[in-house]
Amino acid sequence: MTAMQTPEAPSTMSGRVFSDELHQIREVHIETESILQSLAALQNDAPCASCANVCCKEILCRESIESDFLRFVLGARVDDYSLSDGWYVPGSGCRLSFGRPLVCYEFFCERFDTQEVSSLKQLSRAFKMVYSNVFAGQHILVVDNISRISKNKLRVVLDRLQGLRDQANRALREALLTQLAKQSSRIEVDSGYDAGTEPSQA
Questions:
Q1: Angle at the Cα of 145 (from 97 to 157), degrees rounded to 5?
Q2: According to the model, what pLDDT value does residue 93 have?
């Protein structure tokens, strides 16, 4: 996602003006969310899509509208929040493509406890840690006014976040290449059977 595609960035919220650093953080945050969601979607058994006991509850979703930072990330989307269901829609899942509570990226469900998702889980933990100790020892999610965070601290956060985004992007490319190689291998095997020949043995 490029800067031009970043959705509805708010210039003010509750009468406050946000710094360029916060707007840059918002942009890279949304890009990172998109990459992590893409990595999760590549899992072979798509755990969330087939789950009958979803983790998503309104009490978890609530962080996205109670956190000053996540409200800033959400922008105008904050008005779409449902007090009964949060962001969850039965049958289709989360309505948010960005601004989700960071707990949504922890993938604590045991169905994600596989070797294939170890990289995703490490990146997700790092995503949460990027925002630690940003103001008076607090995580950014609990800072009641993100405009009070110093520009120097925001630049440190932005630098860390950009590094994490790039790392996640590399992991996504590797995962896509691995998946493509598996698909190509299956196609070759199927083609061998279709032609009435046994696939060659390695």
A1: 60
A2: 80
Closest CA to 22 of 32, 12, 14: 12
Dist CA 84 CA 166 (whole Å):
37
**What separation, in Å, do the N-terminal and C-terminal C-alpha atoms of the chain show?**
41
The residue assigned the tokens 């950014």 is 140
* CB 107, CB 40: distance < 8 Å: yes
Helix segments in the chain, DSSP class H: 20-41, 58-61, 63-66, 68-74, 118-129, 151-194
C-alpha span between 61 and 103 (Å, rounded): 9
> What's the length of the chain?
202
d(CA 60, CA 165): 24
Beta bridge partners of 86: 82
Find out whether 71 and 65 touch, Cβ atoms under 8 Å: yes
Whether the pTM exceeds 0.90: the reply is no
Cα atoms found within 13 Å of the Cα of residue 166, Cβ hemisphere only: 6
Please tell me the least confidently modeled range out of 6-15, 27-36, 67-76: 6-15
Strand, helix or coil for residue 201: coil
Tell whether the model's pLDDT for residue 95 goes beyond 70.
yes
Structure tokens at 71: 């409200």
C-alpha span between 66 and 107 (Å, rounded): 22
Residue 68 and residue 175: Cα distance in Å, rounded?
34
